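Box 3.1 A note on notation
Throughout this textbook, protein chains are presented in two layers. The first layer is the amino acid sequence; the second is a token string describing backbone geometry. Keep the layers aligned when reading.
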Amino acid sequence: MGHIRNGQGVYGRLQKRLDRFPIGAPPAAALYEILKRLFTEEEAEVGCRMPMRFAGLEEIARRTGKSLDDLRPILERMAGKGLVMDFERKGREVYMLSPTFLGFFEFAFMRVRDDIPQKELARYMVEYAHNNEDFARAVFAGRTQPGRTLVHESSIDPEDATHILDYERATQVVKDAEAWAVSLCYCRHVMEHEGKRCGKPMEVCTTLNAAADFLVRRRLARKISREEALDIFAATREAGLVHIGDNVRKRPAYVCHCCGCCCAMLSAINRFKIFDAVVTSPFLAEIDGGKCIGCGLCAKKCPIGAIEVRGKEQEGKAVVDERACLGCGVCRPACARAALRMEHRKERVLVPEKAWERTVTMAIERGKFQNLLFDDFERLDHAALRVITRLVVGLPPVKKALLAGQVQSRFFKALAG
């Protein structure tokens, strides 16, 4: 094995492969330690040669130089650990290497298990995914983010509730799903190993649709009913947790129930002031200064410190930082004087239609679009084409046109292939 801390050897190559995802994986000693504990060298070798998109067994065998008989059990072991995701599409089995964030980082802690050293991993996870500003800025580098806030519907006035679109309603997201599963909250489970877990509920991480099927099949989550999923949402609202869902309109894969102390997404806001780490809901907390008495209860409830009381003790008023406010509605129940309400934002919050559209948009924003097109990293012609594509897509008029959706519908359909 090469010198891992300098990014050499198979784990160094795997880190580079993971970093080519729109959700990046910048090099760090803690990341190499994580990879060593999750991937065997054989698995890492397969992982660093896998295509960027879902691919069949034959394509992966060609890329890795392994026979189908040798490759199949390796992928099976990797899927069991959540290192690859496997689904059936058009009658055939397809696989994709899991990314770090919203991927195998979470999968490793979705249940208590003894096949991986969770306590050791937790220490490196905190160092890399929670305390590492480079990682946070790589993940949340663009305007399009993996997660978006779903407002607590109980915090919306009845006259405003009729204006919420179905994909903006947490309850509707649950009702429209075709499968449901629940697992341990990755963030609070990691912090539990570190002795820093808060008292918020643990078994609440909700997955939906095909993602739920995958996690249940791989014994990483527990299958639940629609009714139990709705109960979880009600309980987490009562606990003051933020609903952060998959940032897509159709067939979302997950909804997390997040606290400001343990959550990696919210800690990027709290610790590194990356205010657009999570897409906001269409709402914004607004204070009626005439009714507010400056008690500060709403500020205490806000998971990201977007509300503060300003002014002298007897004359202080709560003030909302519009730049930071997620529009989650967690603060609303704390105000007993009806001085706080959730108002519609002036600018529309745009949400990608499907996961592939979001992936492509994130890749364009983060300068990684070429990796999706030319993803055989062993081929010299692909390397040259990636350079050319990056230069072309990086030109302001081209990038603006792609992000503005001027080629949208046919463009995304063609890439989805």
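The longest helix spans residues 380-393. DSSP finds 20 helices and 13 strands in the chain.
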